[in-house]
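Narrative of accomplishments. A recurring question from our advisory board has been how the design workflow behaves on a single, concrete structure rather than in aggregate. To address it, we present the structure tokens for one chain from the evaluation set, followed by the sequence designed for it. No filtering or post-editing was applied between the two.
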């Protein structure tokens, strides 16, 4: 609960934020050592840190999204990309009624490809939606935090996610996390055969390399890395970015 906003209506009235932060996670398998809610936890942890640092209006997370590549693993639940897009559109409309025109989608699940389409459509005239972090942002943060694996190799339940939960939600990490490594760098048919085609236990990465210190460093780097992205998001219509 510490990662979900406890702000009151009066708190948000006084904050008068011009930008909202929406954590978007998933509810999907993360092997035997991490919970189904891992992506939602990661998104919420980062969204709270970003909101605290830049005074954004923090929204509660969307916790069931597009996890179809994890179909067949017990506990995984998905909605359609169309439904997710509709929910975010409705949230944006409701925010707009309050005068909040900008939305930062803090993404904790790489399988939500539709988020990129939402941002592209929303930003065709002027900047309104930022999806963060993308693969570039993750790679910069991972290097800054001293992680040994790349974002590609560490796709699911590995060094990065395990490190973040070790730091911020250690009770959620199972005792066997140091024995859960599985490497599958070549995944050309992921969208066809899903994660089960490459990882029997659902892990692609090396959680044995995780530390709480890396988790804290990752969040710090991502919080710092969003600052120029927020500046871009707040560029007015007709600026040099949007002639």
């Amino acid at each position: 609960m510490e990662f979900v906003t406890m702000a009151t209506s009066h708190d948000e009235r006084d904050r008068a934020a011009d930008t909202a932060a929406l954590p978007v996670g998933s509810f999907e398998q993360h092997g035997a050592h991490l919970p189904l809610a891992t992506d939602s936890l990661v998104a919420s942890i980062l969204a709270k840190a970003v909101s605290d640092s830049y005074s954004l209006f923090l929204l509660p997370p969307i916790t069931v999204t597009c996890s179809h590549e994890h179909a067949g693993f017990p506990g995984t639940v998905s909605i359609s990309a169309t439904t997710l897009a509709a929910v975010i559109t409705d949230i944006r409309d409701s925010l707009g009624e309050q005068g909040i025109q900008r939305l930062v989608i803090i993404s904790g699940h790489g399988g939500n490809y539709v988020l990129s389409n939402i941002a592209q459509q929303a930003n065709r005239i002027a900047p309104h939606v930022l999806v963060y972090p993308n693969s570039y942002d993750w790679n910069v943060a991972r290097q800054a935090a001293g992680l040994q694996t790349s974002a590609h190799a560490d796709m699911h339940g590995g060094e990065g996610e395990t490190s973040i939960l070790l730091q911020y939600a250690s009770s959620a990490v199972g005792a066997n996390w140091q024995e859960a490594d599985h490497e599958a760098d070549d995944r050309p048919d992921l969208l066809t055969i899903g994660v089960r085609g490459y990882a029997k236990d659902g892990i692609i990465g090396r959680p044995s390399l995780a530390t709480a210190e890396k988790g804290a460093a990752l969040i710090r780097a991502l919080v710092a890395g969003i600052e120029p992205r927020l500046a871009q998001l707040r560029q007015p219509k007709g600026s040099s970015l949007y002639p």
